[in-house]
Amino acid sequence: xxxxxxxxxxxxxxxxxxxxxxxxxxxxxxxxxxxxxxxxxxxxxxxxxxxxxxxxxxxxxxxxxxxxxxxxxxxxxxxxxxxxxxxxxxxxxxxxxxxxxxxxxxxxxxxxxxxxxxxxxxxxxxxxxxxxxxxxxxxxxxxxxxxxxxxxxxxxxxxxxxxxxxxxxxxxxxxxxxxxxxxxxxxxxxxxxxxxxxxxxxxxxxxxxxxxxxxxxxxxxxxxxxxxxxxxxxxxxxxxxxxxxxxxxxxxxxxxxxxxxxxxxxxxxxxxxxxxxxxxxxxxxxxxxxxxxxxxxxxxxxxxxxxxxxxxxxxxxxxxxxxxxxxxxxxxxxxxxxxxxxxxxxxxxxxxxxxxxxxxxxxxxxxxxxxxxxxxxxxxxxxxxxxxxxxxxxxxxxxxxxxxxxxxxxxxxxxxxxxxxxxxxxxxxxxxxxxxxxxxxxxxxxxxxxxxxxxxxxxxxxxxxxxxxxxxxxxxxxxxxxxxxxxxxxxxxxxxxxxxxxxxxxxxxxxxxxxxxxxxxxxxxxxxxxxxxxxxxxxxxxxxxxxxxxxxxxxxxxxxxxxxxxxxxxxxxxxxxxxxxxxxxxxxxxxxxxxxxxxxxxxxxxxxxxxxxxxxxxxxxx
Length: 622
What we know:
Elements: H1 12-21, H2 23-43, E1 48-56, H3 76-90, H4 93-102, H5 105-108, H6 118-125, E2 126-130, E3 136-143, H7 146-182, H8 188-200, H9 207-210, H10 214-218, H11 224-242, H12 250-283, H13 303-321, E4 327-331, H14 344-369, H15 376-382, E5 387-392, H16 400-416, E6 423-428, H17 435-447, E7 453-457, H18 477-482, E8 494-497, E9 500-503, H19 512-516, H20 519-531, E10 534-538, H21 547-552, E11 557-563, H22 569-581, E12 586-594, H23 599-604, H24 616-620
Parallel strand pairs: 5-12, 6-10, 6-11, 7-9, 7-10, 11-12
Antiparallel strand pairs: 1-3, 1-4, 2-3, 8-9
Helix pairs in contact: 2-14, 3-11, 4-6, 4-7, 7-8, 7-13, 8-12, 11-12, 16-17
């Protein structure tokens, strides 16, 4: 819709016109995509989605004033990262494999047997997300049946709760056994173990080394699990940035700062762990001065130390027995009532959007390839011609709106000629564009103002005006040109109405150009112009033959008739330039055959007609 000649940018109204004219294409595209959507909806296997609500506890409850793991989380982002860690653990292959085995899902969900990797299939169909501002996770499972979806969701959350509870108890039992071993008569093995671990934790040890120590694995309440995940994530992110950015890039510096913050948190946790180990070492009779300790063989633990050790064992045993899982089921998954997918309403909406987009693309591409004249801008800006009138489609009977269009053409021609009477040539770029009809109606409009008008059918190849109207003529143009000097041109004229007459072509000659070039023909035109106020000449299409170029040389103005949605813009531009090249004055163009029944055309071309504001009688008397 842009004009290459003037560089005009397309407007929203232009695009609206394209879509309005191609509305049936849009309708068919939407209908087709909707039919496909319906077919897919009823042929694709239905899927159901079940949801279980699970409370995530960042630590199992401890007794007797023991520190809670959540107390070591330093802020919202640390807690959020800890929750995400649990979400990842919930979808880990190991846990899903246990869910598969414990709940016999291969037999309960037969479709799993068709998969080469059932665990990975479950992993894709199970999702976990946090309910905002809560410690609650929403676990969703999708399956091909309502029962299967509920079973899958409940299996995952139940396995998570069982596995985390078992893990808590196993770690507590290991700590109890370790303390029991240390509470023996000598306690030498535990003391030596603590001394070695304290030596590893001296100074600012490397975090990767810290996370491999046994005491760190035992340090359930010091937040090392969360710190380990943070450290690995930041290190991975740093390696990715190093491969892309230089050392001084802002993103590299930001990652380095983040890495330093995590390292500081690890050092604080290590310091707290070191203090606790030193207290334990002192409790079993060890010494930490200068990081040296020499175990006394067969040393007997005194009664106070023995008492403290027994109390610690009893407390840890009680904690292990009362350990809680990291997850508590708030709402188990229930069988959904309706399928989650496919949904007919959603698919139809998406199909409508896709259909509209596809149809719009087709229409815009077709418009890009279409070079016909379809708008006022194509004439005025693209071709550089003034638009004299827009003529609606009409039949043999001229209605009030079409009659007003010809009155507008008459006014435009009068103004183009400077208000003086003269001669005008009516031509077009190709046949069947309505030049003969425009010539006749223009002549009638001129005659309605009281001017004497002669309509000359100058198309000596395929005359459009010579027909039933000229049945009363004795001859025509060609008969007069081949007759003797005494032949009166008036004998070859047919009266069409008051002050309106027609000179038909007469017999068609084999050499039209030779006839039009005769001096007698030019003399006849001078006579006709002198005898009438207006001479309207209907010529052959200027794009087909050169007759119009010859006729244009002997008239005052040329009117170019363009067929709406048919005439080629490039061809019309070339014809206009050719006419100007032979010295003709192109007064303007007429856009013919516009379908005013279309709402878009009525609004777009409204400035070329009165519309509904005047009565029928007013228009006819104009």
